[in-house]
Structure formats: C-alpha cells, structure tokens
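User: Some background: our group keeps a shared notebook of sequences we're curious about, and every so often someone picks one and asks for a predicted structure to add to the entry. Today it's my turn. The entry only has the sequence so far, pasted here. Could you supply the structure so I can complete it?
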Amino acid sequence: MTPEDYMQIALKCARKAFEQDEVPVGAVIVNPANGEIVAKAYNKSAHRGDATSHAEIIAIKKACTKLKASRLWDLDMYVTLEPCTMCAAAISFARIANLYFGATDTKGGAVVSGVKFYDSATCHHRPNVKSGVLEQPCSELLKNFFKNKR
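Assistant: Of course. Here's the predicted structure to add to the notebook entry:
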C-alpha cells in the first residue's frame, strides 16, 4: 500500500469523528515492514471529556497495548491533520519512525507550523516527516466541520 492508501484509512477514521460531532482527525499506525495496521483512532475529546483524547494519543496507546511495548520503533503514523504540540511530543516519546500528515494546521500545529517541536534542541527523537499527503480531502473535511459550527 502507498502513503495515500494509509491516509485514506485515516480519513475514514476522521469521518467517524465528524459523524460524532468531534473535530474530524484520524490517525493510523502502520508497520511498514509488513503493511499491518497496528492501530487506528479518531478524536474523542468531546465525548470523553478529556483534552488528551486526540487521535494520535489514542492510536499510540492502542499500538503500545497491542504490541506490549512502550516504544513504537520502526512504525509509521498517518494523521489527517498536522499534530499539535502534545501529539508531536507523544509521537517523539513513542519513537515513531515516520510521520505522514495531510492538512497543515497554522493555528495549532507544531511540526511545520507554530513551535516546530522537532526542531527543538530538547527533542530527543525526530521522526521523518512528510506533509501534504492527501492534503485537499483532509483539509476539506475540517473546513466542512467548522463551517457547520458557524
């Protein structure tokens, strides 16, 4: 499968969030060695009443539980929106190898926007980053969600 194929799966997760009136962000963690999807998740902050229930955090927790590991060496994450500072840090601490994301988040992102967490001298692990994977559909889903809120 290609990065676009995995991002389509993340988009499907994001659409579930949209249907549940959650900010539509989806994440998928993949073992690139065999193509196995290790974990999938979408935002659940509103329904859980938990500010940390972002798609990335939930996916990392699921993958760690499934693999009985605290580090996710050699795994890839696909997420529909540029991770925030909290999620960028979690991705770093989990030791995700490659991060692919769709839409850039100029207000809350922390990878290529904002604080640029991975450029910080105190960041111990920097994943390889590829932005703009299926950027248009990822961005459109978010725009439609917030348009409906206004």
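Suggested note for the entry: The longest strand covers residues 36-42. The beta strands are 26-31, 36-42, 76-81, 98-103, 128-131.
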